[in-house]
Structures are given as C-alpha cells and as structure tokens.
Amino acid sequence: MMKHKKMNAERCAKMTTTPFNTFKWFAILAKSATITKCATFALCAILSLLAFSGCQLAQEDKGANAHEDRMIGVFITTEYLDLFDFEGYLERNLGSFRGGEIQMGRDADQYQGRIVATLTTITLTNEETGEEIETEEFIFDGIDGISFFAPTIHATEERDSYIASMSDEAISGGFVYIHMGDDESRRTMEGTIYVSPSESLTAYYINPVFQSSDGSVYMTSGSGISFSGDGVGVTMSQTMSAVYTVTEHGRTTTESFSITISVSTMHAPEIIIIMQMDADNAPVLRTEYEPDAMPEVITLEADTAFVIVESHSNSGIDNISIHREIYGRDSDGIETFYDRDDGILVKRWTAIAWE
Asked: In the chain, how many domains are there?
C-alpha cells in the first residue's frame, strides 16, 4: 500500500493561555494523571478499566526476555476500544464469581484483544523542490485517532534498521528522546493536544501501542480523559511507563520507556494579526489572516525590528481574548494555532524572512 502526503515540520515553543472563570468538568483519570492550572471547578474522577494485557500506567521493573513485546507509544481515540473478550472469559471462569461480583484472575490478560497496524509506504514530497522520498509508517487502518509512537523499522537489503517517529499533526510540542547505551537504553516521549472547550462531554482514550520482536505493531485498549465546560487553561496529563530488565549470557541490560500525553484547553483563534514594528516601536505594517490561512513564509519590511503576533479568540458573548507573542531578529519563525473542525487545535509554523 502506498500513500502520498506533504512534508511538514513540527516546531516546539512555549504557549500561554488566558485566565478562566468558574466552570465544571468531569475527568476519567488513570492513577498517574495530573491536573494543572485549575481555578474554581467541580471535579469527578473515576478510574477507568485498564487493559488486561499487562499495560499498566506505571509498570514496575521486572525481569523480561529479549523477545517480549515492548511499549513504544500511544494511539489516541475519541471512542473507547472495547477489545476484551468478556464472553470468552465468562465461559471459562464462572467459578470465580462471588456474590454477583467478578474477580478477574491472573489469566485475564489472555482475553485482551489487540488491533494490529499495517506497515505502509508513504511518499513525502518536498514542496519547494518537488523531490519525493519514500518512507514507511505503521497505520491502524479504519480507525480514526492520533498517532504518537516510535517503532523500530527493521532492516532490509537496501537499508539498515532505524527508529521512526510517527506523530499526528494534533500533537503539539512533541518530542522523542532516545538514549542507546551498552547496558541501558531509554526512550522518552512527550506531547500535548490542545482542544477547544465544549459544553458537551469530550473524551480522549490513551491506548498503549506495543511492538513485537518480529517487528509487528499493535495496540490494546487504554484508559481515558474526559471533560466538559467552557473553561480554558486546564491541562490534564497521563503518563505510561515500563522497564524491562534482560539477562542473557550473564550480561544484564535495562530498557525503559516513558510517555506523557497532556490535553490542554484553549479557545480557538478567530483571527491572527501580524504587526511589524520598527526600532522606535512605531507600526510598519499590519496584516490580518484567517488562522487556517497563515502563509508558509512572511517576508518582513526592511524597517521591521520586531514582530507582534496577536491571536484573537471569542471567549464568550462580547468577550474577546487576545494572546500576544513578540518575535525579534533572533527568531526564524512564528507559531499560531487553527481549529481543524473536530475541536482539536493544530499548531502551525510560519517562517519569517528578515530583510
């Protein structure tokens, strides 16, 4: 299977949000979820059902073998993936029921289903040169969601193996840190999803993704984060981690993996204003853009000493919120957001050319 898409670059920067007033929201949290930047609110936290495949939010250091499946990231969905074979479990474990309660035994993990990804050839096109480059990605066919995982692409006769980063445009400020040592290897991933506040309940399920020793990639069902309300500035984070210790031929090596996904609320910008200013703080040029129509490059006027970027958002009836960022001559680009119509705000990078 082959698909085509354009190249894009993810740039990282700090993002601030405007204050918010009283609101309420509800969260389905995992044990390690954290909440920051909260004002007055009503909170309801519920532990959701964890995957029975051994994917725990905080997995203790344990002995492993070199062929054990490794956690490599997450695939985020807005619908819960009901993959547990409950009917099969009931048929074989009727004796474990006590007083109407279901007590899951240690064999429950064998009833946890999985969804296998397809390794697909992707053709990337350089918009400036027209050059095409083929690469490979793991895709969960037929499932809408946000990819954020780092699989190992196995070697072929034409190339060596390498670790790929598969990140959806919905992941802002994402990074992957990889350390490979003689006795220890570490992979750390972090990313943020910015969403518009909504009165209706919105949920995001963090489904862990694993890779087998044969190179195949699959995911299991995970826990979720959900909320509702018109407040902004709320950030909820969930961390998954695993440590594997392998001893072979008298030599012990440790492999660790950790991923943190944050979901943060902010109002969607309705207009972006670019103000070019001279050295005397006087306006040189003022330009307005629709958030989804920001150009790839803005060439600045010769007299421009710095740039002010304003993001105007509607935070209520007759209530306009303005967020400002200043970029000097040491900056080679600016970052803005646009709403992609599903409630997720995507970060857009625009290069700035100084005269």
From this structure: 2
